[in-house]
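A common beginner's mistake is to predict each chain separately and then try to dock the pieces by hand. The better habit, illustrated here, is to supply every component at once so that their relative placement is modeled jointly.
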Amino acid sequence: MTDRNGEVRYEVRDRIGVITLSRPEKRNALTLSMFGQLSAAVSEAGGDRDVRVLVVMGDGKDAFCAGDDLTELLSHDALTVRDFLIMAQGILTRLEGLPIPVIAAVEGFALGGGLELALACDLILSSDRARLGLPETNIGIIPGLGGCIRLPRRVGLGRAKEMIFSGRIVEAPEAFSMGLVDAVFPSDTFREDCLEYARKLSRKSASSLALAKSAVLKGVEASLEAGLALERESFAYCFALPDAREGIRAFLEKRDPKFGQD
Amino acid sequence: MSHTTVTTEKGTGWTIVRLSSRRGLNKLGTELLEVLRQEVLGALARADMRCLALVGEGGSFAVGADLREILKLCPDTAREFSDLGNSIFRALERSEVFVVAGIDGFCLGGGLDLALAVDWRLGTVRSVFGHPGADLGLITGFGGTQRLSRLIGAKSALSWFLTADRMSGQEAYRCGFLQELCPTEDFQSRFSETVERFASEPLSRLVECKRLIGMAEHPGMRGG
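With all components supplied together, the output reads:
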């Protein structure tokens, strides 16, 4: 029995939380224990006011995450597939709902549950060697961790259907052109480029980011009228918080803003 | 004192509303929005109207309000400011007229929100799009978070707001924000052609499409 702790690492540096999936010999495929560790990391990041951005990445150049380790998951006698899906979907929904930007840094493969994990993040950055797909239909199942729901919200219904029905793997340039990934960086400097991207976001107004995130994600589930009302209240709330004054003054004084120096 | 002015030009079946500034960018402050509201509501009420076109001159479509004005807002006045913009943008969106935006230059913040409320966006390659709220400690107040997510998908829209990055015309076209992209030097002719084209289409057909797409706007249909 190997020690399973440490297959999901969580560390914080310069206000950036980094979750690393580390089971490189299995392309970081997720086990039940890893979901438990992921859940703990999400809670820790969510409870730490100093963490301004969260990055999820895979250990090594081979894979972000090649999916769920189905053999391992189904070997747990007491666990039905439904129990597993409820538990795992809940963790991804909590990750998505964190009030900070969540970035998936995809190097190598992001397949099945691995891509579904990335889709629960706000932004997907990929290396020029990334390969992404939802191949579940090739083995007689369907994406069960939100892929059928979140992929259309990112790339549109038509392209999502095409990817899910065909089960085909998309390479970085195409993934970028269809809007599946938000930016592509060279493989050689990928990790550092992603961290620099995260640092850039960490210097922005945390309250703006949190309000914009909830206005977009909650608003899109509501009617346009309800969404506009939510946005209006969020806009008004900005003027009860310190960042708006600092941000606008900094702009007028032609200097960089200093947000959240409390 | 607002430096941005609104002028209106009328032709057969169309009205063009032009924003221009004596100096600097076209800014959507309270004073200007009040004038724009009059002009837009007047144009929409014209009996023979088929196409209403909005265009910015002098290197910008529009940007948000002057930040000196924004700095004076408190939650209550911010809500009123948001209502003023929303009343115009909602009228454009719900009207039974085909609405076009001609974008050559900066289209940022409130100007981006205005462009989002129209039916057809023509932009030049040199144009610049984005929402700088995250660098200013703000979010948009004229519907941008709602309409951009419905237009290009929630997560793609979120990346615009989280990064506050400025997008090129080419990028705006790639993600589906612009329906028509043209070289900068062709802008005037393309804009006139676009207005003429929609002003000569049978309005009933365009309006029926607009109405049906509006009806399809329920939460289950928001792919992007």
